[in-house]
Design goal:
disordered N terminus, alpha/beta, three-stranded antiparallel β-sheet, 42% helix
Length: 532
């Protein structure tokens, strides 16, 4: 990587897909390089990173095979000797040894070097755990909702696909889109803040709560906000606080499988309310409240998962009015507000910003726009319900680690933050357009009723009679992982669907290749149906 000649310090040039920088004070002269040269730099950097990861794996494999030459506790060659013998960098050696250490094959001692680990003692024979089946179900006969939870709909977007498989099922930004340098700089600065390693207020740092309140808008203040450890944790706290076990809870249909899993884990009974291109349907929303007696509705008004729908302006007030008349709360999961596409325009305000009566409990997070491991989010509510939310969070988690909160403040207050959001906005639009064009050209059989202007996925309807499991299995054999639609429905789905993510892949070229592989899978599935 070649630093800018105008830099005061030799700072590496970040790739154009992640120009967040480190948020510091380094001054740069205007960049005059041509776009093609910038793309070439990005490709070279990504290639170097991929080569480095490959080298680490190869060296770890070779060292693993050679360990048999050493007795337990014997010292391995020094890092310098390994660098010279295998002609790799010191970083590669360090990472390879760290991998073997994690596997329990090598022990490192500061100042002494690396040694072959002593054999682990033989594992004790497995005991008889069959008694647990009786214990776990003995008191469940009276449960209105089974307490066993199906996490498959969540795991499909969390599990890393096998090597070589294109990830159309991911739920987070690809590393090339994450602000890694800005996050690293924010963490470093946060760790040096006075009191950064002390105990924070259980509600969260006041400045971070103020920032979230300001971004949500309306009359909310820092006093109305709790800092939580990720959106999933915030949703779990909200559902536990707002409905007792066995109670019905209205959910959009289709909706986020992770929320359905939370509801069922809390013993709640999801009641579906259909969603169309303009969001949840108010007429069916009112009917569902009357029929179920529910006192809670969970929704995603902005770029809904999985449909990508935005709640229409004329429906926003209706949703709040219907809930208010039912004496119910609305949990607003505002999960991708910071992933608006470049061509989207200004998105509508959160429902919480237009709610003077405390109907809305608002959930928002920094995770989707940064990194899956940067789990900082907020719960916002007004009135007595905030005290119940606070009590449940304190009992379950105590508080979010202060260094992470301090890092969040450093990040959102840096010049790198708006640059990162602009870069992601442009990249997601390009990826969305690449995927939609590829689908129209190669897979016109799959219906795409709505093209979202935010978020990171497309929701496709399969032709009648197409088996979701067969298509997803064929896709995996073809080298592309897709998400089946069934887990997004709390009741029987009206048709088969698949969800395709365009954020978790390396770039447009990989999207094009993934669509080509998906076409192969589709032809295999169609041929199988014809044979039957």
């Amino acid at each position: 990587m070649t630093p800018s000649t105008a830099c005061r310090v030799p700072t590496p040039r970040p790739p154009p897909c992640c120009p967040a920088g480190d948020g510091g004070t380094v001054r740069r002269a205007p960049l005059l390089r041509a776009p093609t040269a910038i793309r070439a730099d990005a490709i070279a950097l990504l290639s170097a990173l991929m080569h480095e990861r490959s080298s680490v794996g190869e060296l770890a494999d070779r060292l693993r095979r050679e360990l048999d030459r050493y007795s337990a506790g014997e010292k391995l060659p020094s890092s310098r000797a390994l660098v010279e013998r295998y002609r790799v960098s010191p970083v590669t050696v360090s990472r390879a040894l760290a991998r073997l250490t994690a596997e329990g094959l090598v022990v490192t001692r500061p100042g002494a070097g690396a040694f072959r680990a002593r054999p682990r003692p033989a594992a004790a024979p497995a005991g008889d755990t069959s008694w647990q089946e009786v214990a776990l179900s003995a008191d469940g006969a009276t449960d209105l909702v089974p307490r066993s939870v199906d996490a498959s709909g969540v795991l499909v977007s969390l599990a890393a696909p096998p090597p070589g498989v294109i990830e159309f099922n991911g739920g987070y930004l690809h590393p090339s889109l994450q602000p890694e340098r800005a996050l690293a700089a924010a963490l470093a600065r946060a760790g040096r803040r006075p009191g950064a390693w002390g105990r924070p207020d259980v509600e969260g740092l006041p400045d971070l709560r103020e920032w979230f309140a300001r971004t949500i808008g309306g009359a909310l203040t820092a006093a109305d906000v709790l800092i939580t450890a990720g959106g999933q944790s915030a949703l779990a706290t909200a559902l536990s606080a707002l409905a007792p076990p066995g109670a019905p809870v209205l959910v959009e249909s289709p909706t986020y499988p992770g929320m359905l899993a939370i509801a069922r884990a809390a013993g709640l009974r999801p009641v579906p309310v259909p969603v169309d291109a303009d969001g949840v349907r108010p007429d069916l929303h009112a009917d569902a409240f009357r029929a179920s007696g529910a006192r809670l509705f969970v929704c995603q008004p902005l770029f809904q998962n999985p449909t990508g729908a935005v709640l229409a302006p004329d429906r926003r007030a209706e949703v709040l009015r219907i809930a208010r008349e039912a004496g119910a709360f609305v949990v607003e999961d505002d999960f991708v507000r910071r992933l608006v596409h470049e061509d989207a325009g200004t998105p509508p305000r959160p429902l919480a910003a237009d709610d003077p009566d405390g109907v809305v409990v608002h959930v928002c997070s920094l995770t989707k726009a940064t990194s899956p491991s940067f789990r900082v989010s907020a719960l916002a509510a007004r009135g007595p319900v905030l005290q119940r939310l606070r009590a449940i969070q304190v009992v379950e988690t105590f508080f979010v680690p202060r260094p992470l909160q301090e890092a969040a403040l450093e990040l959102v207050g840096s010049a790198a933050w708006p640059r990162h959001l602009r870069a992601v906005s442009a990249a997601l639009r390009t990826r969305r357009d690449t995927m939609t064009a590829g689908l129209r050209h190669h897979l016109p059989e799959l219906a795409l009723p709505h093209i979202p202007s935010g978020g990171y996925h497309l929701w496709l309807r399969l032709p009648d009679g197409t088996p979701e499991p067969a298509l997803t299995a064929s896709a995996l054999r073809a080298g592309v992982a897709v998400t089946p639609g069934r887990p997004y429905f709390s009741a029987e789905p009206p048709a088969g669907h698949v969800r395709l993510s365009f954020a978790a892949v390396a770039g447009p070229e990989e999207i094009t290749e993934g669509i080509r592989r998906l076409r192969t899978a589709w032809e295999e599935t169609a041929a199988s149906r014809t044979e039957r």
